[in-house]
Structures are given as structure tokens and as C-alpha cells.
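User: Here's a chain of 86 residues. Predict its fold as C-alpha cells.
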Amino acid sequence: MDYKNDIRNLLKDSKNIDLATLIESIVHLYGENLTIDESVLENILINILSEDVYNLACFINNVPEARCKLNWHYDVIEGEGYITLK
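Assistant: Prediction complete.
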């Protein structure tokens, strides 16, 4: 499957999205009845982002000290995840 292209087609009016929106998009595209097995979701995210970028995205979104200083976003057009300072 071409996950990045599927997401690009779904979110054609978006440039940058957060991790929650990326997850919602994956569930919409590949889930059943708006649910998806956690291991399937994680494998898709790792396939899209790489394991290191996935881990960084989770860290930034789940650790308040990181979240208050850093932003993580997925560039829909480029198909890449980026970290920026707030």
C-alpha cells in the first residue's frame, strides 16, 4: 500500500497536520468501523515515518515538558515528519 499517497489524497487541502490528525486519517483509511488494532496502527505509522521519527513524535506529544517547547507535524505533501521549536 502507498500510505503516504493515500493520506495525501485524503487530505489534499492540508499542508501540515499534527499526530492526532495523522492517526485519525489512518483510522479512516484503513480501520473498520472507525477502529484499528493498535499494532496495525503502529506498523503503519512506522512505515510512513520510520521508527525513530515515530518515537520522537510520540515523545513530543506525550511528554508535557517536550510539548511546551517543541512542535511535531507531518507535511502531507512531502510525506515527512518535522520537529520545530515553539
